[in-house]
Design a protein that fits this description.
The complex is a heterodimer. Chain A is of the alpha/beta class. Chain A has a single domain, classed as Pyruvate-ferredoxin oxidoreductase, PFOR, domain III (Pyruvate-ferredoxin Oxidoreductase, domain 3, 3-Layer(aba) Sandwich), CATH 3.40.920. Helices cover about 35% and strands about 25% of the residues of chain A. Chain A is built from eight helices and six strands; from the N terminus they run βαβββαβααβαααα. Chain A has a six-stranded mixed beta sheet. Chain B is an alpha/beta fold. In chain B, the strands form six sheets. In chain B, strands 3-2-4-5-7-6-12 form a seven-stranded mixed beta sheet, with helices on both faces. Chain B has a five-stranded parallel beta sheet with strand order 14-15-16-18-17, with helices on both faces. In chain B, helix 22 links the parallel strand 17 and strand 18. Chain B is globular. The two termini of chain B are about 25 Å apart. The chains are: A alpha/beta, B alpha/beta. The interface between A and B is large, with 73 and 77 residues. Bound molecules: thiamine diphosphate (TPP). The site of thiamine diphosphate (TPP) has 23 residues of chain B, from helix 6 and helix 19.
């Protein structure tokens, strides 16, 4: 079992990033780690870029992941994956949702959404797993489960028994949303193997 | 891809989570015997305040301090409130302390500027019940207009200040702050930063101490600060700070962590974490009390290390005081004094050779925050954006986003309440030239915070600038705190709702007009009339924030684009609504879609993001935006 690790979550305000990072933190706590997590609130929530840093280990001091030190990047949007390139190292795993959300300058027609931007990661030999979390959420029948599908996909890179996530969902998510979130988690987890 | 973008609006997921209190219970199960909780710094502070026997808390919202009050309010046997501003909040807490109750005032860093008047003199009166004044600083300005370092207030106001490093310490240090406050007969400042407030960590749960009795006691020599009494208390302030300096030497929160190597570090707050990560083996003097400083301990520590490095965010506060002791050290010569630190920055400053090479950042379109789809502020700012000759004296709230393109309709913003007063100052400096060209804009919470006196001044000193109050019934920017315009208390109980029309009339404003900003055309007309009027006027732009729970529940129409009618004029795009996007097309595509060959693109509404305000439909001259009837 890896003794410590850094998981960075990124995306756009409103995508459920904070819940995703929260579920992951609970799972790491249940697995016996010390955990610290840092979020930015306020301005960032009005549709701006949002990030959450999660660090786990035997004893964690800093709540912030250093540049070059994210072991896993869980990006809910393509641009928001590539934006965090300086946080990655050559062995990082990037789990990215293939969704595109247009930044204001693009929606206004002032800039274009960069084409094939994920190649900026793959060309640097970074391990990128792209999944269509939105399609998974649609498939399980609850569009709000995109974030849990992303956690499922990410869980493949953790040394945590997936059953732990099941109990975390039981303990943190309200009924009647539990079952559908478990399904989303499973489908997200399986989507990585399907690649 | 487009359909996915379209559905973003449905993905707000917070509603599915158990309330924090219940979740906390569940996490206890995870740790079973140890009674440990997983809490943010702000949640931990609320718990610490309750455990320490604090029963009265007052504050004004401000990132990153806001969640403390809401969380504290969930505990049994306490009173919590939102005050209209920080000065009021602190004075309420001082009053509570004068009865022997333990009290807490919370605010963001700039809030302490507003509360600075009671702050300085409360150092003289001291307390009866323990009093904690919490200031939440925001290095890096994630959500603030400046980066001031409020440790300077501890020095200036002659008051002890504690600073925790993580949520667990934040909880326990509140207890320490109360104990010190009562022992030293002084309010105690409690400084946190964004990386304490909004960091989650494991916190140990304790028991609530016995809550002290309250009573009315008349002690005028201590509580009536006129010169005769104040001179006596002034001496006491010095004696108390001398005693605090002694206590600092043995306070468990100040301690030396031995280590190896020639370098030693002094750090407090979150900077301590970065030192521990960057140099885990090095000796560290950790300060939990950042004012006054334990001189002997610092000297002793300095003597044991070859090279002393002070690591702190923002001002060289510790460094300057340590240098004043005649101790040689590094600090701002290598550590940045702007923005947040992290362990990478600390490592790079101290041992640059150990830094790995990083991937370079790419140039990408930025994603700044934006007003929500359906935000009533947009309608008002759309009107202002069409008045290029008018100077918009702005203020702080969600509506400050009206500064951003494409609306670009704010020309100044300094601090809460300043919109009205700056416009008045401009009017007086410009004279005649400014007639019909000045307007100030501020939100309901901001007006009640510190706009009322400014408006009073505008009328009293016969100015004419128009004041626009954006009355969305809530303090939206900081996450929906009720305020005196909401008609609800912090707990959501019914409360008096301020009548802005009557208030403005009472201040002497003769022209008070109410508009619905979603009615874009009527709003433009009123703006023109009032801004041109040669006497002071107030426009109350009234429509509820679309994120209010009752607004989210309300069935709203949805608008869609009849693409055949779109001429690509971009009128709707110029409103900057996140539900409207522009699709560029080539001449060939234009012809294929049945548009004029010259048409450069078309605009489309992503329906699931639409909140039905109808502002865009009002500006479309080609009937391309229509209400969906079935909704
Ligand atoms: C002195 C001070 N206190 C608190 C804040 C934090 N703050 C920024 S905007 C705002 C409230 C804005 O509410 P309102 O004026 O009603 O506008 P809205 O966001 O609802 O549009 C607050 C509390 C601040 N910037 N300055």
């Amino acid at each position: 079992m890896k003794q410590s690790g850094n998981i960075l979550f990124s995306g756009v305000g409103g995508q459920g990033i904070l819940l995703a990072s929260e579920l992951t933190a609970y799972a790491q706590l249940a697995a016996g780690y010390d955990v610290k997590k840092s979020e930015v609130h306020g301005m960032a929530q009005r549709g701006g870029s949002v990030e959450a840093h999660l660090r786990y280990g035997e004893r964690v001091y800093s709540p912030l992941i250093d540049p070059g030190c994210a072991d896993i990047l869980v990006a809910f949007e393509i641009l928001e994956a590539v934006r965090y390139l300086p946080y990655l190292h050559k062995d990082s795993a990037v789990v990215v949702n293939t969704q595109k959300i247009l930044p204001p300058a693009v929606a206004l027609g002032k800039m274009t959404y960069p084409a094939d931007i994920l190649s900026e990661l793959t060309s640097r030999n970074i391990n990128v797993v792209a999944i269509d979390a939105f399609a998974i959420a649609e498939q399980v029948g609850e569009l709000k489960t995109v974030n849990v599908a992303m956690v499922g996909a990410m869980s493949n890179f953790l040394a945590v028994d997936p059953a732990v996530f099941d109990s975390v969902i039981d303990n943190t998510i309200k009924e009647p949303f539990r079952e559908v979130n478990k399904k989303a988690f499973e489908a997200g987890r399986a989507a990585v193997y399907a690649k | 891809m487009e359909t996915q973008v379209a559905r973003l609006g449905l993905m707000l997921s917070s509603g599915t989570l158990l309330p924090a209190k219940e979740r906390a219970k569940e996490v206890e199960v995870v740790f079973e015997s140890e009674k440990k909780l997983w809490l943010s710094g702000n949640e931990a502070i609320a718990l610490g305040a309750w455990e320490a026997g604090i029963t009265v808390a007052s504050g004004y919202p401000g990132t990153p301090s806001t969640e403390i009050m809401g969380n504290f309010n969930t505990y049994d046997g306490v009173y919590a409130e939102w005050a209209p501003n920080e000065k009021v909040g602190l004075e309420v807490a001082i009053g509570a302390s004068f009865t022997g109750a333990r009290a807490l005032a919370t605010m963001k860093h700039v809030g302490l500027n507003v509360a600075a008047d009671p702050l300085f003199t409360s150092a003289y009166t001291g307390v009866r019940g323990g009093l904690v004044i919490l200031t939440a600083d925001d290095p890096e300005m994630h959500s603030s207009q400046n980066e001031q370092d409020n440790r300077n207030y501890a020095f200036a106001a002659k008051m002890p200040m504690l600073e925790p490093s993580d949520p667990a310490e934040a909880k326990s240090m509140i207890g320490r702050a109360i104990a010190l406050s009562e022992e030293l007969d002084t309010p105690v400042l409690f400084r946190i930063t964004t990386r304490i407030a909004h960091v989650k960590g494991v916190v140990e749960k304790g028991e609530q101490v016995e809550v002290p009795q309250t009573s009315i006691e008349k002690v005028p020599a201590k509580l009536v600060m006129l010169p005769g009494n104040a001179r006596v208390r002034r001496k006491y302030v010095e004696e108390r700070m001398a005693k605090a300096r002694e206590i600092a030497e043995t306070l468990p929160e100040n301690h030396i962590e031995p280590g190896t190597g020639k370098r030693g570090f002094i750090a407090a707050g979150t900077s301590y974490n970065y030192v521990k990560e960057a140099f885990p083996e090095a000796p560290v003097l950790k300060l939990g009390m950042v004012w006054p400083l334990p001189e002997k301990m610092i000297r002793e520590f300095a003597d044991t290390v070859e090279e002393l490095i002070i690591v702190e965010e923002l001002d060289p506060f510790l460094e300057n005081h340590i240098k004043a002791m005649g101790i040689d050290c590094h600090g701002q010569d290598i550590i940045p004094t702007q923005g947040e630190l992290n362990s990478f920055i600390v490592k790079k400053a101290v041992a640059p050779e150990s830094i790995p090479e990083l991937f370079e950042p790419l140039e990408l379109p930025m994603r700044p925050p934006n007003m929500c789809a359906g935000c009533p502020h947009r309608g008002l700012f759309y009107g202002l954006s069409k008045m290029k000759n008018v100077f918009v004296s702005g203020d702080i709230g969600c509506y400050t986003l009206g500064f951003l393109p494409p609306l670009s309709a704010m020309d100044a913003c300094v601090c809460m309440g300043a919109s009205i007063t700056m416009a008045h100052g401009m009017a007086k400096a410009l004279g005649k030239e400014s007639e019909g060209r000045l307007v100030s804009v501020l939100g309901d919470s901001t007006f009640l915070h510190s706009g009322i006196t400014g408006l009073l001044n505008t009328v009293y000193n016969s100015s004419y600038a128009t004041t626009i109050i954006l009355d969305n019934r809530i303090t939206a920017m900081t996450g929906h705190q009720n305020n005196p315009a909401s008609g609800k208390s912090i707990s959501g109980e019914p409360a008096n709702q301020i009548d802005f029309e009557q208030l403005c009339t009472a201040l002497g404003v003769k022209r008070v007009v109410v508009v619905n900003p979603n009615d874009v055309n009527a709003t433009r007309k009123v703006l023109k009339e009032e801004i041109e009027s040669p006497e002071p006027s107030v426009i109350i732009s009234r429509a509820p924030c679309i994120l209010l729970p009752e607004e989210i529940k309300r069935k709203k129409p949805v608008y869609y684009t009849r693409l055949d009618n779109c001429t690509g004029c971009t009128a709707c795009v110029q409103m900057g609504c996140p539900a409207i996007s522009w699709h560029p097309i080539t001449p060939a595509e234009a012809v294929e879609k049945g548009y004029r060959e010259k048409q450069k693109g078309y605009a489309e509404i992503t329906e699931v993001q639409c909140n039905g305000c109808g502002q865009c439909a009002a500006v479309c001259k080609f009937e391309a935006i229509t209400k969906r009837e079935e909704n």
